[in-house]
Amino acid sequence: MTIxxxxxxxxxxxxxxNKVFLFFGKRSGWWFxxxxxxxxxxxxLSHEPQLWAIAILQMFGIIVSIxxxxxxxxRNKTFEQSLLIIAFILIGIVSYFTYKPDVSPIDIVAxxxxxxxxxLLGYETSTRMTLGWAxxxxxxxxxxxxxxxxxxxYLAYFQIASIFVSIIAIEKTIILGSIKR
Length: 181
Known about the structure:
181 residues; mainly alpha; 0% strand
């Protein structure tokens, strides 16, 4: 087994563990996201080094993971809203600068969905968490498809597993949201 394949498997497993822990409401899930995002970023840059703009979105995901780990229970609403606005601005800039024939719109949509989903999962409300998981679902679908296209099948398989976690999490947050009302 080669080092790139071991990194791909490690990255996929860590991202999957991140989703499972977040699904169960464990903040420690963000710890799995940090090394996975760093490994994923290095894999991504080794395959597509010219796509620096999408790499910026992945770096923003690292920052959001750190926020998920250290954010107190009583969050500053202005900071949270600013983070979401920054995510949308970054997505707009990235979409503008990376829209070229060699960049798939699926790349942009998947990276954007993960960015917005990570921000939304940091909220405690069921509506925003449901939207966060829905963004993750879109991102995982796109990432699985791209994983097979870019010949990283192990990463694609873990993305498929994360699709199922996202679907179950969406159902869970919808049911819990309707119970709380």
